[in-house]
Amino acid sequence: MIKDNKPSILLAYPSCFHYPVWMERLELKTSQLLLASYLAQFFPVEYADFEITIGRPNTETQIRRYRRKVRDFLSGRDFDILALSCWTSLSYQATLMTAGICRELYPDKLIVVGGYHPSARPHEFITDDNLIDYVICGEGEIPLKEIAEGLEKTGRPERTRIIKAPVFPLDQFVGYNWELVEDFVRTNLKGTLANIYIYLSRGCPFGCSFCMEPLKDRSWRAFPPEQALAQFETPVERYRSLGLAVCDACFGMRPGWRKEFLRRLAEMKPDFWFIFETRPEYIDEEDAKLLSDLKVEIQFGVESCSNDMLLLMKKTRQPQKFLGRFREVSRMLSDYGVLHRANLIFNHPGETRKTLGETFAFMDKELDRSDTYLIWACHGYMHFPGCELDTNMKYYEEQFGSRFLCGDWWKDSSDQYESSMLFVPSSDLDSDDVDLWEKMLDERKQKMKRGLAQEAFNFAAKKYFLDWQDDPRFEKS
Ligand code: B12
Ligand code: SF4
Q1: Who is most buried in 120, 197, 327, 458, counting CB within 10 A?
Q2: Domain extents for the chain?
Q3: Residue 291: which residues within 8 A CB-CB, separation 6 or more?
């Protein structure tokens, strides 16, 4: 029975199946906490995360155990709405299984799903038995509130309804309510969070081909700088965190906001690591100076150093300018001793030997320098649904001979990490040449170590390239 027209919401992350254990990340799901913090103003909300409490099942036996544990958890639990966060496509199978268990136990309870996969593929949640009541595409705050408010009157809809969420407006932003996860962190994570991932803004005006962000509202909305900094205080003190990563899609897009935020951050002199990802256009010398006294790592989504690839990736309309800016900013950050990382995606559809050559030629110029603070983070393209590339596969197949061999991998029981990369970027990089980028990268491994300043080398050896710790240059501290 719903009490005082305030249905209680169980907001759960169902975990993911068939994802390699070595990729295990047990971070707190802060986007889910942010959603819970908003809803908790109006309704009783419980936060659950089966990835942390049950694990990531990979085998049939582990999945049977998962089913049993979820059933035990839901049995006799007091909630009116089960809200499942199918945050990425990796959680598709776990979401359907958890919804199924809930339905077996409680034919009348409302089940809602939201997150990136439902936003990308809402129809995949429509089943013959109308297992799920609402599928929310986009930001969940407003639709969930409206659904909960109407529940007593309307009950379960006859058929699954797909709802396109309106943009969540800035004037309704609320800060993180850490009380909602206090028991959870104490019971399941020994009361500590070594790294905290936090969101201070939403929205990104760009439309990169491989990214799902453009499916959400593109308008940039941020907590005012003072309020943004206040979000750190509780978790850092309470959970003895060593690092705080701002995970915004487009950190610091507005110069006025960024400058005030960084000035206040510098005044705060935090003793934790501060990590954020941004674009080279959004860092200037004034920012670098402010950051130079802090423990900071800036990550740049450079993606490729080939003009053709950057255009194809829709990263920028002016690739030469973009790369020139990155080079300039990176050298300036090295001069100020600020650690920074360039993220590159290799084998994006359309990649050829020529574009690989262009990227490595750009890298070589930077690798020939000494005492740098630039770390290269290189990864092969992973195909996730919902981005431009996913809707335009035919174009890439016809234009470049790309071959998407992964199918709907999120429905399979093979290793989903490997499956999402089953893919040929172009007819030029088919067969044995699919791995050419890895070979070209291997040839540069020594240079990647040698060019780094001592501090940057130690940092990279501790965080990214653990085998570098065997290098005589590594200094333990
Ligand atoms: C930050 C981030 C991370 C952080 C997460 C930190 C954390 N603890 O929260 C880290 C680095 C750990 C990460 C890891 C991965 N990520 Co990531 N990540 C992002 C990123 C940049 C930002 C998301 C954001 O801005 N959130 C802001 C908050 C406020 O919004 P939100 O998360 O979208 O949540 C809202 C809605 O989704 C919705 N919602 C969420 N849950 C629910 C539940 C219900 C019931 C409802 C109604 C609504 C709802 O409401 C929320 C509030 O408005 C996105 C997008 C991008 N630009 O690249 C990718 C993105 C989500 N990541 C992606 C991927 C693929 C991954 C990895 C698989 C990468 C990898 N190879 O390992 C892993 C998987 C991690 C996992 N555990 O499953 C993909 C997912 C694509 C897909 N189709 O599934 C994205 C979209 C990037 C892309 N390629 O387009 N990621
Ligand atoms: S990759 Fe970054 S810049 Fe590009 S659309 Fe996604 S969030 Fe925006």
Answers
A1: 120
A2: 9-171, 189-470
A3: 262, 266, 298, 336, 338
- Residue pair 306/359 in contact (Cβ under 8 Å)? The answer is yes
Return the bridge partners of 374, or none.
Answer: 340
Indicate which residue's Cα is closest to atom 55 of ligand 1: 213
Average pLDDT by consecutive 10-residue portion of the chain (477 residues)? 86 94 77 97 98 94 98 95 97 98 97 98 97 97 97 95 97 97 94 93 96 91 96 89 93 95 94 95 96 96 98 98 98 98 98 98 97 97 95 96 95 94 95 94 96 96 94 85
**What does the pLDDT read at residue 85?**
98
- Contact at 8 Å (CB) between 64 and 95? no
Q: For 9-171, give the CATH class.
A: alpha beta
**Does any ligand 2 atom lie closer than 6 A to the CB of residue 206?**
yes
Question: Which helix (DSSP H) or strand (DSSP E) does residue 189 occupy?
Answer: none
Residue 261 φ/ψ region, left for φ over 0, alpha for ψ in the -120 to 50 degree band, beta for the rest: alpha
Quote the CATH superfamily of domain 189-470: tm_1862 like domain (3.80.30.20)
Burial zone of 98 (CB within 10 Å; 0-12 exposed, 13-18 middle, 19+ buried): buried
Ligand found nearest the CA of 281: 2
313 lines ligand 2 (CB under 6 A): no
Predicted TM-score (pTM) of this structure = 0.96
User: Are 238 and 178 in contact, with CB atoms under 8 Å apart?
Assistant: yes
Closest ligand 1 atom to 387 CA? 90
Choosing from 250, 277, 310, 348 the residue with most ligand 2 atoms within 8 A of its CB, the one to mutate for a pocket test is: 250
